[in-house]
Specification:
Radius of gyration: 17 Å
Number of helices: 7
Largest sheet: 7 strands, mixed
Number of strands: 14
CATH architecture: 4-Layer Sandwich
Distance between the termini: 7 Å
CATH class: Alpha Beta
Number of domains: 1
CATH topology: Metallo-beta-lactamase, Chain A
Length: 252
């Protein structure tokens, strides 16, 4: 069976188009919906199970029926990655499991008033678990809030999801070097810069990281409108591609 990951959002908290901005990328996105970027997120499908990877899209309830979602897998509890859970939690029916990092604070009152969401499935770094036979390993990332990336493994494939992060912790980088994925989906919010920004990667950082990992296909996500402007004028190196909302990644 194949592992299928659909990018449901490839933007940052600012989104594309950004409110009030008239740069070339924002104007293009307003005129052509295919260039819009929703909050960074994905749909992971394996063994007939659907996992929503992050929940920052506000209208999740309009996109999914209760029986269609098996669980949520969260990278962290910043609002642009969990805001869709706030109205959904007040739904009616069976509990929905939510897996994520052991952040005691979470986001606002989600833990206190969880509704139909079950937040008891906290994860530990580098301790793998399974979601309907899909092996998942949490990987610590560099961000302003406790954040995990994930390595998804089937018997024949590996895909790494690394967002939000500025560079990678040494242990996470070493783990990926030793367990090289066929595909990496990684935070690349910014055009090439002389130094790695504080909370998110720039293109130079991502290229340097993959110099160690050696992944043949690197897909960039969490893309800002400034980086989109850069992409309109520049090409990416071989093996690198800019993700877009709706991109389907399928490996087996």
């Amino acid at each position: 069976m194949s592992l299928k990951i659909t990018l449901s959002g490839t933007g940052g908290a600012q989104l594309v188009p950004a409110f009030g901005c008239h740069c070339n990328a924002c104007e293009r996105a307003r005129n052509n919906p295919q260039y819009r970027r929703k909050p960074c997120s994905a749909v992971v499908e394996f063994n007939k199970a659907v996992t929503l990877l992050d929940a920052g899209i506000p209208d999740l309830m309009e996109c999914w029926q209760p029986e269609e979602i098996h669980q949520f897998l969260l990278t962290h509890y910043h609002m642009d990655h969990v805001q869709g859970l706030f109205p959904l939690r007040w739904g009616v029916g069976e509990k929905i499991r939510v897996y994520g990092p052991p952040d005691e604070q979470g986001c606002d009152d989600l833990f206190k008033h969880s509704g139909i969401l079950d937040f008891s499935h906290t994860l530990e770094p580098f301790v793998w678990f399974t979601l309907q036979a899909l092996r998942v390993t949490p990987l610590p990332l560099n961000h302003s809030k406790l954040t995990f990336g994930y390595l998804f493994e089937t018997p024949h494939s590996r895909v790494a999801w690394l967002c939000d992060t500025a560079g990678l912790p040494e242990k996470t980088l070493k783990f990926l070097v030793n367990n090289r994925p066929e595909v990496v989906v990684i935070d690349c919010s910014h055009e090439p810069r002389a130094e790695t920004p504080k909370n998110h990667c720039d293109l130079n950082t991502v290229i340097a990281l993959n110099g160690h990992i050696g992944c043949p296909r690197v897909i960039l996500t969490h893309i800002s409108h400034q980086f989109d402007c850069w992409l309109m004028e520049n090409d990416l190196p071989a093996g690198f591609e800019a993700g877009f909302d709706g991109l389907v990644i399928e490996v087996d």
